[in-house]
């Protein structure tokens, strides 16, 4: 059993075909790639809020450049996760593949900021669901 998500490379499976491969490089950074789902190919490095809520329960939350708010609560024993994501209307109402870029690319960040400024932000599409994760072995 994992004793923490910090420093781990994981594969996270969520409903509707979402598959993330996050690497929680430390309590201050998460780097991830979406390998399947609505914006497959998205790569991002985010600065989350990290908390250890209880033995075997950890929390990450962050704000995406698209305006999406994401929280993940990791239950280490059963290797499950609870996701809450609030996606702005402008992104939820279009083909989400437009956000499949790399948030380390300045042109991509500018395009997402431009689209977010146009909006609309509300009403947001809420994802409140559960998934599971596995630890990836280092190569």
Instruction: Give the proportion of residues in helices.
Output: 10-25%
Class of secondary structure makeup: mainly beta
Calculate the terminal CA-CA distance, rounded to whole Å. 20 Å
Order of helices and strands: EEEEEEEEHHE
Largest sheet, in brief, is: 9 strands, antiparallel
* Count of strand segments: 9
* Low-confidence segments: none
- The coarse silhouette is globular
Mean pLDDT, nearest integer? 94
Q: Within the largest sheet, what's the order of strands?
A: 4-3-2-1-9-8-7-6-5
Rg, Å, rounded = 15 Å
Tally of individual helices: 2
Q: What share of residues are in beta strands? A: over 45%
Give the oligomeric state of the chains in this entry, treating copies of one chain as homo and distinct chains as hetero: single chain
Describe this structure in words.
With 139 residues, the protein is mostly beta strands. The protein has two helices and nine strands. It has helices at 89-92, 106-118; strands at residues 10-14, 18-26, 29-36, 43-46, 49-54, 57-63, 69-75, 80-87, 125-135. It has a nine-stranded antiparallel beta sheet with strand order 4-3-2-1-9-8-7-6-5. The longest helix has 13 residues, at 106-118. The protein starts with 9 loop residues before the first strand and ends with a strand. The mean pLDDT is 94.
């Amino acid at each position: 059993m994992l004793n923490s998500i910090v420093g781990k490379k994981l594969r996270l499976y969520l409903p509707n075909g979402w598959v993330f491969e996050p690497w929680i490089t430390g309590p201050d950074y998460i780097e991830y790639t979406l390998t399947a789902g609505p914006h497959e190919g998205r790569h991002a490095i985010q600065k989350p809020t990290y908390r250890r809520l209880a033995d075997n329960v950890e929390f990450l939350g962050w704000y995406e450049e698209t305006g999406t708010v994401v929280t993940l609560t990791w239950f280490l024993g059963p290797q499950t996760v609870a996701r809450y994501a609030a996606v702005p209307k402008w992104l939820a109402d279009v083909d989400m593949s437009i956000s499949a870029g790399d948030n380390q690319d300045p042109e991509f960040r500018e395009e997402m900021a431009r689209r977010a400024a146009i909006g609309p932000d509300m009403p947001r599409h809420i994802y409140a669901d559960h998934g599971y994760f596995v630890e990836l072995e280092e190569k």
